[in-house]
Amino acid sequence: MAHIHLEDGSFYLQWVIIWTIIALVIIGICIFWLRNVRKMDSRLMTLAALCTAAAFAVFQIEIPVFGGVHLSLTPLIGILAGPAVGGVIVLIVNVFSAAIGHEGWGIIGANAIVNMAEIVGAFLIYTWLTRSMKMRALYSAGIATFLGLFLGNAVMIGIILVSGIQGKDVVLAELSLVAAANIAMAVIEAFVTAYIVAYIQKVRPDMLGVTRVAERR
Description:
Layout: H1 13-36, H2 42-59, H3 74-81, H4 83-99, H5 108-132, H6 137-163, H7 172-203, H8 210-215
Protein name: Cobalamin biosyntheis protein M
Membrane topology: Multi-pass membrane protein
InterPro entries: CbiM/NikMN (IPR002751)
């Protein structure tokens, strides 16, 4: 998955402020949506707690390649809980990750935007494939995960190119290597997520309906 593993001071201050404001606006919309449109119930709250714990744990399992790559579960979060809940989850996960030194505090906003791109992209693609194209959950989840992570990868590269890194020239070739490593991990995560969703559909199909039930309320 795409994640910016940079320390505080890497981005110029103005870009730290800009990405933080954008992230706060996105999270604010998510909270407004949950309070006024798609109100949380006990089932959705339990699901959100499980997704938060799982995502935080997976975030810390890092493969030391090209600055570190790892799975994220963000597409799975989008598929199971939806974008609004997902926005709150990624904020919590990124704050906790910064607290243990996984990323700089000033990078939280940028990473939240990247993660939201993955969540929203996977959610929309999965919903379209399952509802409009009538595709099986196994294939829908796999495709949605890969494309969602690909989108997040593109957003990450764009943020780094726009922000620049203090004291270092941002070389597109270096970012391309990181992007390639992330895409390779996206393929693995697509298979993992696809089989998780297929298993959930088999044993607990109601979990895949939590988002739709909440949206109708």
